[in-house]
Structure formats: C-alpha cells, structure tokens
Amino acid sequence: MNKSKSYLLILTLLSFFSSDYIFAQTTNLISNSGFELFKKLPTDVAQAKDCMISWVIPNDVGKGEYYHQQCSTKKAGTQKNHFGEQNPHSGQAYVGLCIAKNFREYLQTELKSSLIKGEKYTVKLYISCADKGWLSTVSEFNILFSKGSFSIPENENLQVAPEIKFTGDFSHKKDWIELSTTYTANGTEKFMTFGSFVYKDKGEIHGEINGAFKYAHYYVDDIFIGLEENKKPPVQDSIHEKANTVDTSINLTVGDVYVLHNLQFESGKSILLPNEYPELENFIRHVEKYPNQTLLVTGHTDNVGNKGDNKMLSLERANAIKQYLVAKGINKNKIVIEGKGDEIPLDSNETEEGRKKNRRVEISIIK
User: Fold this and answer.
1) Does residue 52 have a pLDDT over 90?
2) How far is CA 57 from CA 113, 183, 206, 363, in A?
C-alpha cells in the first residue's frame, strides 16, 4: 500500500446552543481520560504536574509521575521507568501515584458536566501495581466527588470518607486491574478526586499500607464516568434540532478529499452534540470496513482568544472525536490525536463565517 497518500475527512462541527450542561452523558465525562494529551513529555520522575492536561495533583508538595512511550529517558517511560515497567492499558501514556506512610498523591479533575441527581453512573478505571520488589501494596482505592476543587496542604493525607470504595487484592504487577462500580449521583458532583484515602469509618481505619517498607506506587489509566448505557441524556425545551441530510454511501478512495459543511464547533466549546452524530456514524460505517486503518484526528480553532488556550481547545476537540469513535467500537490504538490551534485556517478569521469554517476537526486515514 502507498503510505504517502491518505484519505482526508474535514469535519466542520456546529453547535446551535451554548449550554455546557446539554450533551450526551453516556459518553465519558472525564477529559483526557487516558492521559494522552500532554503539555510536554516527561524527562524524569515527579513531573506529572508539569506534563498533564485536564488533571492536577491536589497535594501542595505532590508531583505525581507521568509516563509516556515517547519519553527519551528510562526514568519516565512505559517499557522502563523508575518504579518498574508496564505497557499502557491503551494509547501511549499513564500516570503514577506514590502512597507512603506520611505522604500520598491523588489525582483530581473537573468533570465535563455536573452529575444529574438520582441518575446512575458507571465508574471505571484501571490500575497496576509497580513491580519493583521493594514496593508495598494497598488494598483499597477511593473516589471523592466535590462541588469545587481543593488542595491538600504540605504532606497531609486526605482524611475524609469517600463516596466510592474499591477493595481487593491489588498486588498484581503484570496485568492491569479493572476497578468498576455503579454510582447514584446526588447532583452536586462537579470534581472527582482519586487515590488511596486514610479515613475512619464505623471505628475501622482505612488506608493501611501492606508490607514492611510502607511505600507503594501504582499506575493509573483510562478513567471513565458516564451514565449507564441504557440511559439517555436529558434534553432541555430550548433545544432546536436541525435535520441534516447525510450521504450514507461514502466510498473512500486514495487521494479523495471529503468536506462536511453541516457540522461545526461553537467558539470555545469542545462538546459533541447529538445533531453531529449522523455525520460521524456515516464515517464510522466506512472505517468498520477497513479496521486496520490508522486515524489521525487533528483539531483546529479560529483565532478568538490566546494561542495557548486555542491549542489546548483543539486537542480537546480532537479528543472528543476520538472518544466518540472509541465508544462506537473503533480500536482506540488505531487513533492518534493532535491539536493545531489556529495555525492552519481554511478561511479569513475576520468574519464569523470564516471563523466557523476554521473551527473544525480533520480526520486523515493513513494506509
């Protein structure tokens, strides 16, 4: 096959409403859930705070570890790193958290939308115990939901009862362990914090570290929170849906360019809306015929705002497309994402019409 040629699909993505609350909560409410988006590649341990996008380490003195396959050193790679080795559960990256007697690291992120009171959500993620022989293990991990973000001063532990407890034998060092449960929301959950908490419940102390050394390290990847699959997202009366006419018979040929004009992102948003699905479903039907193809998803923005924010937004838009494709069964390891910000406009940014054209996602299919 001629790898120098690619199919190019330009998605011009439009939302006709501005509410961040309205979107398909059956998709993942966690941004950058597999830690694939990064500010920079790590060069050493304790660099997660400087590398991660959409995530924070809430400990004031905590750093966290960010591991990536493309890391040029053995300290923060995936095949080899300071605490051992592990292939990512998916993609090219994962993070690491240290859990010590007097110091613990946690992961915190803002959900794309607050959870809906009374609705049931699937909560799922993957952990793996780092395999250096001297490391200890823990038998419980936790999730805390909160209305706002918070920080943990100095070396203090998070000593609060969590909403979710995962308990079991978490000593497996070869494979990833799935942690999953169903959670009923109270409607106040906007931020999620994950880690191994120290707290007292009914007289019992939780958060003990197993082993003599009292120092554990765990890898974390692919965090998911979304409405149970049989649930539909709420719809507000103010939504006016537009019927799109979609050509359902795409036959992609090497060198062809397909431009879809009836989908666009609203300026400043990265949320896929229901009216956009027919375009992607049409595209997915083609991809399903060629499962060995690799997709390059590239996000673009207009020039409204500063370049740094636009770059991040374009990455998030590309990731929104990736997450939708993955949810529809496309192999996540066959999808690479990148963000170009406002670097490659299709039209002038001096007019609203031009800016609409520039807010887009391009999908190149490489053979």
Assistant:
1) yes
2) 20, 24, 21, 33
Question: What does DSSP say about strands 360-366 and 6-12: parallel, antiparallel, or unpaired?
Answer: antiparallel
How many angstroms separate the CA atoms of 218 and 216, rounded?
7
Q: Tell me whether strands 107-110 and 140-146 are parallel, antiparallel or unpaired.
A: unpaired
For the chain, the domains span 6-22+233-366, 48-227
- Strands 6-12 vs 257-260: parallel, antiparallel or unpaired: parallel
Architecture of domain 6-22+233-366: 2-Layer Sandwich (3.30)
Could you tell me how many helices (H) and strands (E) the chain has, helices first? Answer: 4, 18
Which DSSP string do the residues of 183-220 spell out, in sequence order? EE--S---EEEEE---EEETTEEE-PEESSS-EEEEEE
Q: What fold does the segment set 48-227 form as a domain?
A: Jelly Rolls (2.60.120)
C-alpha dist (Å) from residue 228 to 61, 95, 124, 231 = 37, 26, 11, 6
How is residue 37 written in tokens? 């988006």
Is the Cβ–Cβ distance between 48 and 129 less than 8 Å? no
Q: Average pLDDT, stretch 185-206?
A: 92
Rounded distance, CA 136 to CA 215, Å? 5
The mean per-residue pLDDT over the stretch 207-212 comes to 91
Positive or negative torsion for Cα 298, 13, 25, 31: positive
Per-residue pLDDT tens over the stretch 243-253: 344 445 566 66
pTM above 0.70, yes or no: no
